[in-house]
């Protein structure tokens, strides 16, 4: 999700409930340019949390690579 003039805009979602704002989710990660990954559901186990942190790191790196490609194009 990302901030909008009226609150938060959902870019994608799956399942229910979908949080209306990041503070409603038990897990949030800032991705880039104000975009936030917000997850709800059952509590993460440590192995799941470790995997999720690696996934978020990859998302951030790909976003940065895309930003650099756009700047050099």
Features:
73 residues, alpha+beta, two-stranded antiparallel ribbon, 4 strands, 23% strand
Structure at a glance:
The protein is of the alpha+beta class. Helix content is 37%, strand content 23%.
Provide the fold topology.
Blueprint: E1 2-4, E2 7-9, E3 27-32, E4 35-39, H1 46-72
Antiparallel strand pairs: 1-2, 3-4
Overall description:
This protein has 73 residues and is an alpha+beta fold. The chain is 37% helix and 23% strand. It has one helix and four strands; from the N terminus they run ββββα. It has one helix spanning 46-72; strands spanning 2-4, 7-9, 27-32, 35-39. The strands form two sheets. It has a two-stranded antiparallel sheet. The two termini are 27 Å apart.
Structural class: alpha+beta
Tell me how many strands there are. Answer: 4
pLDDT averaged residue by residue? 90
Shape: flat
- Order of helices and strands, N to C? EEEEH
Provide a count of the helices: 1
Rg, please?
14 Å
Report helical residue fraction: 25-40%
Strand content: 15-25%
The biggest beta sheet, please? 2 strands, antiparallel
User: Runs with pLDDT <50, length 5+?
Assistant: none
Distance between the termini: 27 Å
Strand order of the largest sheet: 1-2
